[in-house]
Structures are given as structure tokens and as C-alpha cells.
Amino acid sequence: MKMEIMDTTLRDGEQTSGVSFAPHEKLGITQMLLETLGVDRVEIGSARVSEGEKAAVRRVIEWAKDKGYEDRVEVLGFVDGGSSLEWIESVGGKVMNLLTKGSRRHVESQLRKSVEEHLSDVRETVLAAHARNIRVNLYLEDWSNGMIHSRDYVYQFMDALADLPVKRVMLPDTLGILNPLQTAEFCSEMLKRYPHFHFDFHAHNDYDLALANVFAAAQVGIRGIHTTVNGLGERAGNAPLTSVVAVLHDHLKIKTNIKEEKIFQMSKLVETYGGVRIPNNKPIIGDNVFTQCAGIHADGDCKDNLYVNDLLPERFGRQREYALGKMSGKANIRQNIQALGITLDDESMSKVTQRIIELGDKKQIVTPEELPYIISDVLKHPTEKKKIKMINYSLSLTHGLRPVATVKIEIDGEAYQMTAPGDGQYDAFSKALWKIYSSLGKETPELVDYSVNIPPGGKTNALVHTTITWRFKNHLFKTHGLDADQTEAAIQATEKMLNLIEEKQ
Q: Active site includes 141?
């Protein structure tokens, strides 16, 4: 069995508070979902939302038409006397996901209509779409409540519309109220009563049961699952694409067209465009989920992969890491040191381990890239002379004017100075620095992410961590700075980065 995946990041995911995708972002996400990741279908927006939405949807559909993907991009439409149909037709859409009512309460309380009136309106809309050569999938909004409180209505709806040209019927747990037992029961009933229909299941995560409910639906034979990248969506979000795929593949042995090795890339793109950070402990895609912190775990991995499961990081385009902090044991340190090609005796290893534990107690962050400097300091080895030193810098911030930075650095004993404006103090600093690099014909890294961590309460000696993620020659790495001023901390992190890439040249 192969499961069909419909991703609704660009529709339901965009209903996340504060998330809005620009037209080029919608296009980029659609391209990656369909061509890179292998999603079967993409819901790209809603009809009649705004002129901006209209332009974005049209742009995506034009691209899809050129690629032959017209039947794989879908737009949410409404039972509204034909207005949604006209909107979708005007942007070139060929598939409408029609929002109908899956519970009697929604019909009577929201629409203020009788069941018969709603059924008549739905029939009219579906036939009108068919006449326009627009294929229709039906959303039964609030279907979960319908099955709990008005099951007779659900069956009346399905029976009355069974003869219509409908491709798929989509079963939403709109308010995220179901548990896995209910999901299995209700989906089984729909499959048995209407075997000729293709059913999708659409989960919400209000009780943190979205993934469990997807498991239950897939187990009883549902043929399509709706997801969003990173679990975006209204309120607590939707079923996250990443976890859904892993559960389908590993626990149910159900195949999909998803290319697992592209999942992390997809997630980071949506994180960037959507502005919603991926939690560090988010399964598969979080920063920490393939990181062993406890020394005993690293020790077990060294001896016989004792703490390794089927979720191998390599499957998802990632790699296993061993954290450096107060919980680190010698095994953690050894794993990182070996990766750097460094050998230490037991006594030296103990000293380095103790220093890292001390830094962890002070809430300081240690990265593998910084480990050689710690070793050098602890063991009193002469520190390798920095190839690049920050000699002086001046940051100017004046009301009504762009910030300006003047930077003087030393490279292999030669001093260089440049001045540049920027959109912020660190941006100005960076632009001045890259002017120096450009004048010397040196390659510059790409800043991928910039984050500032201020401890709750602002205590920890009033220090802040600035963490910057860089990409240089397809290598992704992080550097940290620690200072009372976040810009100073960022400059510290930048200097570390410059010396790290110099060593790799």
C-alpha cells in the first residue's frame, strides 16, 4: 500500500498566527514540496482571501501548468453561490477543495439553513464546477463532531451526494478532539459504508494527538493524509509532515513518495519563510533530536550503538552529534575529539572534560568547533596564532540615519580597514568586513541564522549568548559569542568563524 500525502502548509499552515507567505515564497515552497520532497498534492491557498493571495495563487498555478502539475495544486473554495468558482477559474485553478459542513450543528447554527438547503447548495456548486472543468474534493468540516453528535447527518450527507463527480472526500478533525480509538472507529465506518470513495484524513493537534490519530486512520485503510511542514496550522497546528512520514514508513510499513533525505531542507525553508522557529526537541528536525547529551549514552554508542534506533539522522539529511556541557562524559568528548582528528591521553581527557563541565555549569555553550581552543587552554599548549584578529571597530547609531561601522582587522599580520553603512549595527559591521574580503578576493560565508539567548530573568551575570549559523562551501556550522552586549557577542562569534574557515582553506 502507498499513502497519498497532501500538504496544506500554504493554506492551513498559513492560518498560523503571524505567518504569511509572500508570492515568491509560496512558489518556492510549492516547487520544493512537489519536485524535491515528492509530496503528491499541495493545497496552495484559499479563494476570495485578498488580492495578494490571488496573485500568489495565480503565480503558483502558472508554474504548475508549465510543469504539468495542474492536477496536483489545489485551492480551498466555499459554497457561496459560485463566487469561489469564479475566483479559482480566474487564476487558472483546476482543483477545488470545497468546504462543506460535516456536522448538523454547523449547518443549523453557522449557516442558519436546513440540512436539505445545504445539500442542495453543495450539489449545485459541485455540478457548476464540473461544468467549468474544475475537479472537486469535498471537505466535511467538523466531521469529527458530526460523527460524535450527529452521525445520522453525516450519512445523510454522504448518501445524498454519492452520485456527484467528486474525486476525494476529506475527513477533518477540525477542532482536534479525536483520540486514536475514535479515529479508527469513525474512519472504519466511512470506509465500510462508502468503499468506492477515496478518503483523506485531516488531523489537528489540540490534544497533541494528531500524529496518533493519523496512525489510527492509516492503520484502518485511509488512503490520504494531510500534513503541514513543521506542524504549522491554526491553534496547536496540524499533523507534522516529518513525523507522519517516519511513522508511516517505520511503524506501519506504508510507502509514500516522500524523499526522506530532503525533509530537513524542506523544514528549514519553511522555518525561514514562515518566521516560526522549529523547537529544539521537535522530532526529526529539531536541533537537539540527534544529539546525545548524557555521557552514558555516548559511551553506549561507542561500544555497540546501544542508544541508536531506526531514526538514523542520515535518513533525513542530518548527522548524529554529541553535546558538550555539564552532562558530558569522556565518551562525548572523545567522539568530538576524534571527529577533529585529535588524540588525548586519559589524564588530558579528564582535564578537558572537567573544564567543559565547569563551562556548562555557567550556562556557557561549547561547540565542536571551539573544542581545540579549550584543549589548548586547559593543557597549556601554546595557542595557535590567530590568522585573523579584530583590531578595532567603531559602531555608530544616530537617530534618523543608517548605522555605520568602521572595521580594522589583521590578516596574516597585515592590517586592513573599511567603512560601510547597514540596516543595523551588526549588518553594518558585516558589510565593512566583507568589503575587506572582497578587496582581497577572499570568499565570504553565508549567514544562515542569527539568534540571541537572554537567560530568563536576565541573571547569569547579565551575559547573553549570540549564536550564528554559517554556511561555507556547503559546510554548515555554528559559532557563539558571550557578552553583556549582543552585538559584541556577535562580533566574537564572527571572529571565531573567520579563523575556522581560514584553517579549512
A: yes
**445-505 has the same fold as 401-443:** yes
Catalytic residue among 141, 234, 369, 495: 141
131 burial level (CB within 10 Å; 0-12, 13-18, 19+): exposed
- Fold observed for domain 401-443: Double Stranded RNA Binding Domain (3.30.160)
Q: Are 476 and 499 in contact (CB under 8 A)?
A: no
315 is catalytic: no
Domain assignments of the chain as residue spans, ordered by start: 4-274, 291-378, 401-443, 445-505
- Fold of the domain spanning 445-505: Double Stranded RNA Binding Domain (3.30.160)
By C-alpha distance, which of 280, 305, 389, 273 is closest to 16?
Answer: 273
Does CATH place domain 4-274 in 3.40.30.10? no
Contact in structure between 466 and 480 (CB atoms under 8 Å): yes
This prediction has a pTM of 0.76
pLDDT tens for the chain, residues 1 to 505: 799 999 999 999 999 999 999 999 999 999 999 999 999 999 999 999 889 899 999 999 999 999 999 999 999 999 999 999 999 999 999 999 999 999 999 999 999 999 999 999 999 999 999 999 999 999 999 999 999 999 999 999 999 999 999 999 999 999 999 999 999 999 999 999 999 999 999 999 999 999 999 999 999 999 999 999 999 999 999 999 999 999 999 999 999 999 999 999 999 999 989 999 999 899 999 988 877 554 444 444 444 556 578 888 889 988 776 556 555 555 566 666 665 556 666 777 777 777 776 766 665 556 665 666 666 666 655 445 678 999 999 999 888 889 999 999 999 889 999 999 999 999 999 999 999 999 999 999 999 888 887 755 545 455 677 889 898 888 888 888 877 788 888 998 899 889 888 876 6
Bridge partners of 138? Answer: 98, 169
Instruction: Say which residues have a Cβ less than 8 Å from residue 330's Cβ, sequence separation at least 6.
Output: 295, 299, 349, 350, 353
According to DSSP, the residues that pair with 419 across neighbouring strands are 406
